[in-house]
Amino acid sequence: MNINIQEISGDYSNIEGAVVLFALSTEDGYEFRPPAVQLDEKSNGALSKAANASEFKGKFGQMVELLAPSGVAASRILLVGIGTMEGFTALKAEQIGGKAIHKLMHSGEKNVTILIGVHAAHNAMGVRLRSYKFDKYYTTEKNVKKPSVETVTILTLESEAAKAEFSSLSKIADGVIMARNLVSEPGNVLYPESYAEQIKELEQLGVEIEVLDEDAMEEFGMESILGVGQGSSSETLMVIMKWMGSKDKNAQPLALVGKGVTFDTGGISLKPGAGMEDMKFDMGGSAAVVGAMKALAGRKAKANVIGIVGLVENMPSGTAQRPGDVVSSMSGQTIEVINTDAEGRLVLADCLWYCQDKYKPKFMIDLATLTGAMLVALGQDYAGIFSNDTDLCDQLTAAGQAVDEPVWRMPIGDGYDKLINSDIADMKNVGGRYAGSITAAQFLQRFVNETPWVHIDIAGTAWRQKPSDIAEKGATGYGVRLLDRLVKDNYED
Ligand code: BES
Ligand code: ZN
Ligand code: ZN
User: What tens digit of pLDDT does each residue of 195-251 get?
Assistant: First the structure.
């Protein structure tokens, strides 16, 4: 689908295809925006007649569709309510773009023109994100149902500024879509080696890629991540991405770390069969990191950023790790593996330590589909954050609000930390029945020294069962926009 932005022109009656028009809600009904006023006149009042007949009030997201109104070239008009002008933010413009394209995508129309005065770039972003669907494995016409819309043109005021803004936003969308694609791929297609190959595509954008294989990780003493992959026939890999966009190439980098379990069976602590297929999404944290690196490099962010992902498959087999095994991590600390299904923290432990040790970053943010308990605590709207640094949490919270990928800070502390003490090693990898997301975070914190650090548990936000205004059901790409925005608002030259 082509999406382009052009300067608004005076006469809209010649526009063919589907035209999207807007109205505000007022105390006693609705108020058409100027393009809607004009087309209402040209169509002899057809628009207001339809609005009145359907009790249209201009409320946010309310829609009225008119087919083949006479007096105008458009074959279809979609009238959309946007609520009040003060409430019509950039985020709302995205949602409206998403709603409108979803309504028209399979309408039979090839061309859609949206007549919007403000926030045109965000409107375009909504169109882009909502029209994405992971349909590569459909082969029959019945399933494919290709969208009819080929081109979306957004007419706006100050189109030059809007175009510039969209060119940066669409790089971020590229990152979101890459993350969604990675998360949607099944485990037989996306496994550590094939995943690393896909990450290498970022080299085209100027990202440097380094891959540590099992031998290299053994040399570093990374038994913690290696133990997780021990039962799989796939090689465990750690991939390091470097985007050095700052003017000062020696400036201390920011670091993003992601859990990339390409499939989580639970290992010998096998998960129940029902719903296990969902565990292809267990690399969602790493996908957010890869997507964010793509976004940052794509828009040439002026910051030095390191991305590190631990790619591994958690399988039961004759060579798999046993419950009760003791492994030694790169940090030197030993871990009693009580439950092989609590593998994400074992992966991140070595990634975090390596990251801190090698790059001495300004901060580390890790993302992971880490605990089912996160879904119990916060559901699917907010991701939980756990941190040793309030300023970084505040920045992340603000970024989350700005891009509608919200986070909520959870507590950590000594009382929780005690719960993962082990009788025979420095720690155990599970902390008992209560506070499962917090004890997981405590485990991670034992691999972070003084570096400002945030752990984001995205178990609830990486995948949706129902579509939203800007995403089809399935992989959300959550985290890409959040991280990009954090960098943009606080850490660029
Ligand atoms: N990948 C899962 C977490 C998960 C579970 C995310 C369900 C989304 C939905 C993780 O590796 C895991 O299995 N965690 C266990 C930890 C437990 C054994 C302490 C969990 O949450 O049940
Ligand atoms: Zn698990
Ligand atoms: Zn897992």
Answer: 999 999 999 999 999 999 999 999 999 999 999 999 999 999 999 999 999 999 999
CA nearest to 7, candidates 167, 170, 161: 161
281 three-class SS:
helix
| pLDDT grade for 143, boundaries at 50, 70 and 90 | low
Mean pLDDT, rounded, for 144-172: 95
Residue among 341, 430, 437, 439 whose CB has most ligand 1 atoms within 8 A, to mutate: 341
Q: Return d(Cα 125, Cα 172) in angstroms, integer.
A: 9
- DSSP 3-state of 276: helix
Q: Is the pTM of this model over 0.85?
A: yes
10 Å CB burial of residue 269 (0-12, 13-18, 19+) is buried
Distance 100 CA to ligand 1 centre (A): 37
Q: What atom in ligand 1 is closest to the CA of residue 370? A: 3
Catalytic residue among 59, 103, 200, 271: 271
Catalytic residue flag (residue 249): no
By most ligand atoms within 8 Å of CB, the mutation choice from 225, 371, 463 for ligand 1 is: 371
- What is the C-alpha to C-alpha distance for residues 393 and 398, in angstroms, rounded to an integer? 9
Q: How far apart are CA 421 and CA 335, in angstroms?
A: 9
> How many angstroms is it from 341 CA to the middle of ligand 2?
3
In this structure, the residues whose C-beta lies within 6 A of any atom of ligand 1 are: 264, 282, 339, 341-344, 369-373, 375, 430, 436, 459
Q: How many CB atoms lie within 10 A of CB 398?
A: 14
- Determine the Cα–Cα distance for residues 32 and 42; give it in Å rounded to an integer: 14
Q: Would you call 163 a catalytic residue per the annotation?
A: no
Question: Which residue among the candidates 280, 345, 446, 481 is catalytic per the annotation?
Answer: 345
Q: Name the phi and psi angles at 183, rounded to 5.
A: -70, -30
Q: Which residues of 197-207 are buried (b: 16+ CB within 10 A; e: fewer)?
A: ebbeebeebeb
Return the pLDDT at 120: 98
- Find, among 178, 194, 238, the residue nearest to 484 by Cα: 178
* Residues 366-402 pLDDT 10s: 999 999 999 999 999 999 999 999 999 999 999 999 9
